[in-house]
Amino acid sequence: xxxxxxxxxxxxxxxxxxxxxGYGGSAKTVSDGYxxxxxxYYNRMILFSIILNTHKDISxxxxxxxxxxxxxxxxxxxxxxxPDGQYxxxxxxxxxxxxxxxxxxxxxxxxxxxxxDITILFSLLK
Length: 126
Description:
Number of domains: 2
Helix content: 25-40%
């Protein structure tokens, strides 16, 4: 459990990151002393592409959400329909070819999964 000091410190750091973005800066180079955000997001993309490419029969990618929208024109969504539910991420189109899975015109409807639900990926091992 986080102490009150840790909670305040994290809150202050998050505030500074938001201010940085407000001035046109980027959080990409923010580091914990070992990895930058950019490295961690890139590593997550590579690992998720391996999962989806290994399970092509239940994986997909799309340039539009189920309702025809997308956050940015240079983004896409990809996902997997595991035995325990859906899991998805958004990426920049630069990474489109890393995901060698079926392309859909529209992504399946979002089922409400959250980042904390990442453990549903363990159901792929059943």
